[in-house]
């Protein structure tokens, strides 16, 4: 690029304004100076307007930004406040539920404690009641056995005659019939004078049940226990008859003793088949002769335990199996 001439550069840039050329120069110089000053003034004024406008714009922008952020933050703060209030309500409700649950829990714990205490008391009472019941059962068992024994002792002079025909001519003279039975089966037992003293004799039960086909038993009470025992021993040795018909003569025992003796029937029959010489002794004791010894048993369980330990007897006295086969 070509360099500009000095006068052109001077015009382009303008003259430097000084006090000397402003006051002491020519009129043209003054005019030029005034014109230059005016231009500079306009230029400065224009720059000031731009600056002012920029400042106003910045101020307006700042105000709008403040307004925008203020509104935004007010909304955010309002939203957060609402959420905080909602959370506070939920927290309060949760606290109320927690308090209610805590109260319910405390109430349940109190009830559980009371129930546990009540259950413990009931268990203790139950233990005491069980002990009392066991003692009562033992006493009842003892008293029952005592009463049964007393009843059996009260019947020690009695004999029970089984199978005597149920006929009016027989029932009306049972004492005479008994003497005839003794004369027919064991005449040597008769006392001097050929008569046995009988305190009383009767059928049992006293009322005849028409639905039963078997005759009622006859109970005879002797005045002499020794005579009764002699007749009973003879009845054990052989079968008694009355006018050719078979009859049985046994002890007259209490109902409980008869029931206990009857429980041995199945084992008794099987023992007889095995030639163990079984016997039922007073009051309801089973005895057998096995391997050269006499063995006695008060309970069926004791006999079964004994039989299981002996190979010769094991499995032969299964009462349930025998009852099932009989059925």
UniProtKB/TrEMBL annotation:
Residues 1-48 are annotated as: Disordered. One of its GO terms (biological process) is retrotransposition. Keywords: Coiled coil. The keyword Coiled coil applies. The keyword DNA-binding does not apply. Residues 70-153 form a coiled coil. Residues 255-313 form the L1 transposable element dsRBD-like domain. GO terms for molecular function: single-stranded RNA binding. Residues 156-252 form the L1 transposable element RRM domain. GO terms for cellular component: ribonucleoprotein complex. Gene3D superfamilies: L1 transposable element, C-terminal domain (3.30.250.20), L1 transposable element, RRM domain (3.30.70.1820). This is L1 transposable element RRM domain-containing protein. It comes from Monodelphis domestica. The lineage of its organism: Eukaryota, Metazoa, Chordata, Craniata, Vertebrata.
